[in-house]
Design a protein that fits this description.
about 240 residues; mainly alpha; Arc Repressor Mutant, subunit A; two-stranded antiparallel ribbon; 2 strands; sigma factor; RNA_pol_sigma70_r2; WH-like_DNA-bd_sf
């Protein structure tokens, strides 16, 4: 089974599910219109946004700020700014977690834990860093911790299938079951690498940053994971 076939199998079996809402779960303000005068969400500091001082006389609209400015505002205590950062990154954070733990519930837990940890550690973040890479690495670590705590997972917790009007439901169930069993025989890291690369479209360097491994290791893991799944699923197409 060559890589294009593997990719097709993944896209039919590992869906991109709507991520949870960390903004609500963390009880953060919803970033919509700028907050009214004197209410939470206004930054009181000497940082500048667009050349003008940010203080009690100027509300912050997350939609109008660049990410670095959102980070600076969030570090100054503006929860609306942090909520804006969450909105920007929640889908990819969920995809990272889902690639590692596979089940929706575990991925949801990892995202919540990751965002909460990032919120608490925000003051230690250096604005010159890439916020997305920093955040997704935290989420990946949370997901890896959950995966290690839950070595044995029920088959019903595995990824939902992408239903097709032309696909026999029984065939879809069998396809999911086979892929599920094959994925579960991979280690957490190799499973994360192949799903992040072949399903979510991450580049090797991005995967290396997310998982804290060299780019070459990510390439090697992908090669070995594909070879392993090829052996596990070698008779899949012949039985269709």
């Amino acid at each position: 089974m060559d890589p294009p076939i593997l990719n097709d199998v993944f896209r039919r079996c590992v869906s991109r599910v709507t991520p949870p809402d960390p903004v609500t779960a963390l009880s953060l303000p919803i970033p919509s219109a700028p907050p009214s005068h004197g209410r939470p969400g206004r930054v009181v500091s000497d940082i500048r946004v667009g050349g003008a001082p940010v203080g009690t006389e100027r509300p912050i609209s997350p939609e109008a700020l660049e990410e670095r400015e959102l980070v600076l505002a969030a570090q100054a205590g503006d929860n609306v700014a942090f909520a804006g950062l969450v909105r920007r990154h929640q889908r990819r954070a969920y995809a990272v977690a889902r690639a590692i733990v596979l089940s929706h519930d575990d991925a949801e837990d990892a995202v919540q834990e990751g965002f909460l940890h990032a919120f608490r550690a925000l003051e230690r973040f250096r604005p010159e860093q890439a916020f997305g890479a920093w955040l997704h690495r935290i989420v990946a670590n949370a997901a890896l911790d959950i995966a290690r705590r839950r070595k044995v997972r029920d088959a019903d917790e595995l990824p939902e299938t992408l239903s097709s009007p032309h696909r026999d439901p029984a065939e879809s169930d069998e396809l999911r079951a086979r892929l599920t069993r094959a994925l579960d025989t991979l280690g957490e890291r190799q499973r994360a690498v192949i799903v992040l690369h072949d399903v979510e479209g991450y580049k090797h360097a991005e995967i290396g940053t997310l998982l804290g491994i060299p780019e070459g290791t990510a390439r090697s893991d992908l090669h070995h994971a594909r070879a392993h799944l090829r052996r596990q699923l070698s008779n899949l197409r012949s039985e269709k």
